[in-house]
Amino acid sequence: MKNNRGNLFVVSGPSGTGKGTICKALLEKRDDVVLSVSATSRSPRPGEENGVHYFFLTEEEFRNNIDNGQMLEHAVFCGNYYGTPKAYVEEMLAAGKNVILEIEVQGAMQVRAKHPEGVYVFVMPPSLQELRERLVGRGTEALEVVEQRLKTAEREFGYIEKYNYIVVNDDIDAAVNRFSAIIDAERCRMERNIEFIKEVCEG
Ligand code: ADP
Ligand code: 5GP
Questions:
Q1: What is the pLDDT of residue 22?
Q2: Does some domain include residue 27?
Q3: Is residue 19 situated within a structural domain?
Q4: For residue 139, which atom of ligand 1 is closest to its CA?
Q5: What is the number of domains present in the chain?
Q6: Which of 61, 81, 97, 194 is found 20 to 30 A from 130 (Cα to Cα)?
Q7: What would the mean pLDDT of 79-97 be, rounded to a whole number?
Q8: Is pLDDT of 2 > 90?
């Protein structure tokens, strides 16, 4: 079957809504999905490894990567740089993988301008109260950073209509199943199967 290029999925949503948890579960469930490893200038959290969770760079290294044209997109989020290295994404799409970028809204809008064929998924918390509890419960940020991230969440909600799907993360298994269903549905879109249709119909 021709047309084996993978699809690009961009996942956003407020900090603490469960994007990382969902993506990790999805990777365990499906071998046709890969996650892009972002670069950031923020400090590693306990347990985070360079090259696995992020490429941890200094601000100077990060700016050099931008200047060298290595980033598909980049943004400043709560005072730190974050960005997607371009090469891996291109390589994996060409290899037929579904590539997930787990990125905030400003970066997602840059990707959308370059990749209108991508699929844009916004992960919603079941409520703002639950979002706060998850962010505090994760225990990875000081309380003032939690407040900053919750404030940022209000701005992020303003971008929802730019996305194709919302996935509510009430129950983790249900949310992962919904995301997985979106991946399958997108694979079945007529316009993503033009080559295959031709092959069958024209013999
Ligand atoms: P994000 O990547 O969006 O910042 P995380 O994946 O780190 O969010 O999740 C934030 C916290 O919420 C983590 O402690 C995680 O274990 C927890 N969490 C994620 N999904 C759920 C869920 N469906 N129900 C309850 N807690 C959840
Ligand atoms: P965290 O510090 O919690 O790991 O991430 C903070 C925010 O940065 C999250 O909303 C996350 O999706 C976003 N983020 C992570 N990597 C990237 C990236 O490569 N580009 C952009 N624009 N945002 C990112």
A1: 98
A2: yes
A3: yes
A4: 14
A5: 1
A6: 81
A7: 97
A8: no
- Tell me which residue has its CA closest to atom 27 in ligand 1: 18
pLDDT(128) > 70: yes
Task: Look up the pTM and report it.
Answer: 0.96
Pocket of ligand 1 (CB under 6 A): 13, 15-21, 134, 137-138, 169, 171-172
What single string gives the DSSP state of each residue in 103-162? --HHHHHHHHHH-TTSEEEEEE-S-HHHHHHHHHHH--S-HHHHHHHHHHHHHHHTTGGG
Query: Containing domain of residue 116, as a range?
Result: 8-36+96-201
Task: Decide if 52 is inside a domain.
Answer: no
Domain harbouring 24, CATH code? 3.40.50.300
- Helix (H) or strand (E) holding 35, with range, is strand 33-35
Percent of the chain with pLDDT over 90: 96
Residue 109 forms part of a structural domain: yes
